Amino acid sequence: MELVVALVSDLHFGPEASFGGKLRKLTGEAPELTRAFVRRMNEVTRPDLVVNLGDDIEDEGPEADRERYGACMAALRGLKAELFHVAGNHDVIHLSEAELLSAWGRPEATRLHYAFDRGGFHFTVLHTRERKDHDISLGPEQLAWLGEDLAASPLPKIVLMHHSAADQDLRGNRWFEGSPHICLVRERRAMRKIFEEHGVLAVFNGHLHWNHLDVIRGIPYVTLQSLIENLDDDAPGRPAAAHAVVRLGPKRIVVEIEGAERARYQFDRR
């Protein structure tokens, strides 16, 4: 039996956000792009569950962030499928853990890292923490929890996170080229060793604003493009409108990236 999981990432509800003096994030289009994603999921894809990989807002201040995070959650709650969340670095700058958990409304999530089982699979959600312009870290406590969580489940395992645990080649990435410390998790080698020891099937993340695939020691690490990324060099812009549909089957995993930059990956299960 197949489990269909849809993924979306980096919705960035918020004020206009330029980078290097150019319009890179189409934040003004975030509400409509999110509503279009919800319509497609409800009317066409009809997944079993949807995972939001984080960075739902373009942080500005506590009051504005609270309002925009609420607007994003309200739009996503239009999904007919069950909805799960990952915390992104922008989400936690002005909003507390308690505020995010309340907005999620998920009984499984008593903290920002948690786990759940659906459709014969075990899903582990990690919370990678960013110290702005310094590094990305999981921390020793959560790293220990990760090993314990994966060891305790006999089910096939999927890991969901915001930043990347792969050693990505960042050449050509207009956000992070030359800056692995602000997009790749510092403890990624230790994390990958735990994934390998406990039979993780695949790892999914957002944050880097491009589609990217690494396969390391048999495990695919899939990075999903931002929903609101501007595919043009500047204004007026052309949105990526990216999302992924992941089909978890008994023999293989098929990942279809949809939107303006389409891709398809297929992996046999080990």
UniProtKB/TrEMBL annotation:
InterPro entries: Calcineurin-like_PHP (IPR004843), Metallo-depent_PP-like (IPR029052), STPP_CPPED1 (IPR051918)
Domain Calcineurin-like phosphoesterase: 5-210
One term of GO molecular function: hydrolase activity
Name listed for the protein in its UniProt record: Phosphoesterase
Organism: Sorangium cellulosum (strain So ce56)
